[in-house]
Amino acid sequence: AKADGRGSCRVFEPAMGVQALERRELEFDLRQALLNDEFELHYQPIYNLAEQRFTVCEALVRWRHPRRGLLGPGDFISVAEEMGLIVDIGKLVLKRACLECALWPEDVSVAVNISPLQFRRGDIVTSVAEALEGAALRPSRLELELTESVLLQDVAFTSLTMKLLHMRQVAISLDDFGTGYSSLSYMNELPLSKVKIDRSFLAGIEKANKAMLMLRGLTRLSAELGLSVVIEGVETETQLELITAATQVQMVQGYLFSRPLPGEEVRKILRDEREE
Ligand code: C2E
Ligand code: CA
Ligand code: CA
Ligand code: CA
Prior knowledge:
alpha/beta
C-alpha cells in the first residue's frame, strides 16, 4: 500500500486490483515455499527408439502448495524468475535431480531445465559441480536444458560458460528449439549435444504436409550439425508413425510414452524395463 502523504496508509487502494493482490500473495507464498521445502520434482522418461528403452528422464518442478494443491511450473516459474527466486529454486532442483539420478540404472541420465537468470546469475558452473559431488554422480549423466533466449544474451559469457560445462562432461541441450529467435550461426559454435524440437511442431502433422516438412527440415538440419534430436510432446500412435516414417529421429518424449512421474514410480519403471 502506498502512503497517502498524510501519514496514514491505504491498504485497499482502488488502484490495487485483484490481480495485484494475487500477485503479492503468490510472491509471499513462493518465499515461504522455499523455507518450507514445498517444491518437488517429477520425472518424464524420454524414449530412445534405437535402444528401445528410456535413456534420459527430464526433471520437472512441482509445488505442493499448502492450500492450492499441486501446482505446475506454469503457475509460478515466471514470477519466481522475476523475483530472482528461481536461482535458489534452480539450485535445489539441480541437487535433487542428481540425487534421484544416482538411484537409477547407470545408463540413464537426468535432464534439468536451467532458467536464463540461473544461467547468468546463479554460479551455474559451481552449483552444477556441487550437485554432482553431493550425489557422487558421474557428470556425463547430467544434461542441462537451455532455451534459445539464453544463447542470444551475452554471447561471450554464454559461450565461455557452456565451454566450462562441456569440459566437465556435462551435456547441454537446446530446449524448445524452433520457437525462439533461432540463431543457427551460434548453434554451430556452441558446445551443444542435443536439440529438443518443441511440441508445437507436431500440431498439424496429421493434416498438413507443410507441418511435416518443417519438422523434417529441423530434424535434418540438427542431425547435419551433429546434434542428437528429441521430439517433444508425442501424444498419439499416429504422430509417432508419421515421425518415424519421415525422420531419422532417435528420441521421443510425450504422454504416449509416459507422463512426468514421482521419483519412486520412475525408479520402478526404469528397473522393470531392464529386468525383462
Ligand atoms: P519444457 O521444458 O518444454 O517441458 C516439457 C513440458 O511439456 C512439461 O510441462 C511436460 O509435462 C509437458 N509435456 C510432456 N509431454 C507432453 C505431451 O505429450 N503433451 C503435452 N501437452 N505436454 C507434454 P511442465 O512440467 O508443466 O513444465 C512446463 C515448463 O516449465 C517446462 O517446459 C520448462 O520450461 C519449465 N520448467 C519445468 N521445470 C522446471 C525447472 O525445474 N526449472 C525451470 N527453470 N523451468 C522448469
Ligand atoms: Ca525442458
Ligand atoms: Ca521443451
Ligand atoms: Ca515447451
